[in-house]
Amino acid sequence: MPGLAVPTWDPETALLIGVILLEAVALYAGYGGLERLFGPYLMDLLVGGESSAQ
Amino acid sequence: MLSSLVGGGGLLGTSPEMLALFVGFGLVVGVLFGFFGMGGSFLVTPALLMLDYSAPVAVGSGMAFVFGTAVIATLKHHDLGQVDYKLGAIMITGTTVGIEAGRASVYYLESLGLASGVISVAYVVLLGGVGAMVTRDALTGGGWGGGGDGGDGGVDHEAADRELDEYEIPEIAETIQRTVRIPPMVTLRGDVRVSAWVITAVAFATGVLSGFLGVGGGFIRMPAMIYAIGVPVPVAVGTDLFEIVFSGGLGSYLYGQGGGVNLGIVAPLLFGSALGARVGSAATAVVDADEIKVYFGGMLLVGSIAVGIGEVGSYLGNPTLELLGLVLVVGAAVVVAFAVLYTTVTSLRVTRQQRTSAAD
What we know:
The complex is a heterodimer of chains A (54) and B (360). Chain A has 54 residues and is mainly alpha-helical.
């Protein structure tokens, strides 16, 4: 039976997890920027002028 | 090194059709997570199992997806002051050991050729149990998980906004705090004083669940933090996310060392879910989640049945049943996500019409 593993340094796996971490941060920042840029336009498109009504 | 990540088994190892499927599925899962505050990973691992990925890859990639989602959610909650760092630090150890115990169990069952079956059965029970509780709660107007405190097993957006001193510690938590006084005792936010061993036990138990099923485990951990430790709901939400970043990251690393994390699955899922979570979270400002929670409960119940059908199909070697199970899992999630979006847009249009009429 494979027992409990103690983490050992593995550069390839660390890079893999680092890529996921980096992607998460980039998506948070990127989608945040897109929301600010295109959010009001999308709301107008979906609701028909909701943002301007407010 | 990078080529091995992007190449075989990585992004380029996944066909464009599968990449599109994962982005779309991630979008749907993100809407559900952003809106209901739970269910972010319930459906990912079962869907991967039904797509014939091995159990370690399905669970490991599910866990890496949870890690990425937790990073994004923690960044969002960063300024809300809803993280108890002391509690999070104590929990990280217990959760990490629990995740590792769960991971070792998966690899052990895999060596016996039983992992996929056992995990699928566990999901049938889990999805069915949680689905039944959510549905009952939606139909009776009661509460589960966080119960009257508004936990709902996930993020209660109104409760999360309340002041910490408005919360009363649940009776059961007070009893535990009085009776279990094994040192060291620690004082947490909200003047909660509890044995570090209680915290570690809660963290370990929910960590095993996370490591075995590849889920964040917030739907169990948050009620456990509220009822066993006595943590206020908003702090339970923020601290849960904070500690998943570390324990989920380490769990993903351990799965990754065994080849259990496939970037070709995780990257497109995250790409879709990060957008979906923003949409779902924004929708909570327009639509009360309680109004359509019954659909969410129904989705979990359908998911339970679907995983059961898929597993029977796998056992009988019947690809039609396996496909039916997959279609039901994905279809149920898509239907509920569309219900959220449709209800939101409809509510916004009604509001606009009312304002226009009032202005006239």
